[in-house]
Structure formats: C-alpha cells, structure tokens
Amino acid sequence: VSQQLASFSSLWFDSLSWQPTEIQQSLFEKLYEKVLAANAGLNLTRITEPEEFWEKHLWDSLSAIRHFIDTYPQRLKANFKVIDVGTGGGFPGVPVAIVQPDWLVYLLDSTQKKITFVERLTVELELTNTRTIVGRAEAIAQNKPHREAYDLVLIRAVANANVCAEYVLPLLKLGGTAILYRGQWTPEETRSLEGALEQLGGKIGEIKPLTTPLTGGIRHCIYLTKFARTPPNFPRAVGIPNQQPL
Ligand code: SAH
Asked: 173 Cβ partners below 8 Å, 6+ apart?
C-alpha cells in the first residue's frame, strides 16, 4: 500500500483531536487506491488528488462523526446500526465503517453499478461490519426490516435538505440521530427544514458549522433527532419527495 495520505496524520489530530490507528490509516490508503482505479469507468467522484481525497472525502465524512461521538456519547448504544443513504462511491459510509468497527453500517444506493463497486470495495478492504443494499430510499424506508431500524442515518450530496429529511426520518429509530452533510447553510433553509420535520416526527438538534482544514471550505452538519413516529405515508412514492419537496 502506498503512503499518499500519511502526511495528513497531524492534521487529523489538530482539527479533530483524533487520529486513525495504523490499520485504519492503511485502509484509507487502500480505499483511495480502489476509488481512484474504479473512477474512470464509474464516474464515482470528481476528486482525484490526494489532498482533495483526504479533505473532501475522508475528513468530510469523519468530522461529522467525531463531533457526534464527542458531543452525544449517551446516544451510542450496543449493536449500533447506521445507514448511509445514497452512498455513491462509499461516502461517508465506508470511512465511518473503517473507524467504527463496532458499528454495523448499511450502504444504500439506487444505482446497481455503484453498489457493485462498493460491495467489491468492502470485500477487498476486508470490512466485516458493512452491508450493501440496492434500492431507492423511498422504497427501502417502507420496507418493514428497515423502517425505524437505524440509530444513525447519514446523507451527503443526495438532494435538497427537505427531500433528505423525508428519506432519512422514516429509517430512524425513535431517539436516533440523522446527519445531513451540507455545504453553505442559510436561516431560510432552517425554517423550511423545520416545516418538513414537523410532519416527519423530527427536529433539528444542532447546526454545526465546520471549516475544512486544507482549503477553508464551509460545511454545515445538520443533526436531526426523532421524537415521534413518522406517519406511514412518509416517505411518499418513489420520485415524489424530489418532485414535490415538503
Ligand atoms: N454520498 C456520496 C454520493 C453522492 S451522489 C458522496 O457524497 O460522495 C448521490 C447518490 O445518491 C448517487 O449515487 C445516487 O444514485 C444516489 N441516490 C439519489 N437518490 C436516491 C434515492 N432516492 N435513494 C437511494 N439513492 C439515491
């Protein structure tokens, strides 16, 4: 395994007071290699340079999780179940599975070829705590074994925030947390999201602004909590959440 990401190890510590173990570090290197090798054919990401990969995929995926673990330790239960909705090339779910081997991480995408790649990737990385699912979030969330079954739901770069809320709240257990990975964020978006969440049994727990450590990019992690069951009519039929956002 090459060492293209090794130079960032002190940045992990400086920015998140956390550092990957050697095993996790070598899994990150392998992940970078595999994503890069598959990228040309699959169009998984426009990110190819090591700096960008480290910051926009690894750091971005994990900063939201470090904050969650540091801030809400009481929300971590035994047999912690996580789902990454619209995982694409495996982000944020695969880095999360690497650093939290005690969590069971489901990787969901509607595109078969992306899940075929992610499945092979997790086998090559010898991750035993991941499961892959092909399907639309709207359909999976109406499927008994998945409905209100997850402690933590992650969603990055899939749709606007209200659409994401309709995808994630039905998958979330009562008392669970969903993390919307966003870039810029406005008070108007907060107001609009609150309107959607009211219908879904969720509320905003925290809006956490973050600055990426290499290029100073703006990120907002929106932490949602679920305080009431989601009515059975949500999510609406496939395609409707996106066509007619709440
Ligand atoms: N989360 C990844 C990929 C973002 S691209 C990242 O941040 O890098 C968005 C992905 O979401 C695509 O792979 C697309 O197939 C998937 N997707 C879009 N709508 C979806 C839905 N309703 N259910 C499941 N997957 C969906």
From this structure: 148, 149, 150, 151, 226
Q: Could you report the per-residue pLDDT of 53-83, keeping only the tens digit for each?
A: 999 999 999 999 999 999 999 999 999 999 9
In this prediction, residue 46 carries a pLDDT of 76
Residue 216 in tokens: 């100073």
Q: Are 150 and 122 in contact (CB under 8 A)?
A: no
- Out of 65, 109, 136, mutate this one to test ligand 1's pocket (max ligand atoms within 8 Å of CB): namely 109
pLDDT of residue 100: 98
Coil, strand or helix: which one is 245?
coil
Q: Residue 24: which of 52, 75, 61 has the closest Cα?
A: 61
DSSP string for residues in 148-213: T-EEEEEEESSS-HHHHHHHHGGGEEEEEEEEEEESS--HHHHHHHHHHHHHHTEEEEEEEEEE-T
Q: Which atom of ligand 1 is nearest to the CA of 114?
A: 13
Ligand 1: centre distance to CA 114 (Å): 9
Q: Residues in the chain with pLDDT < 70?
A: 1
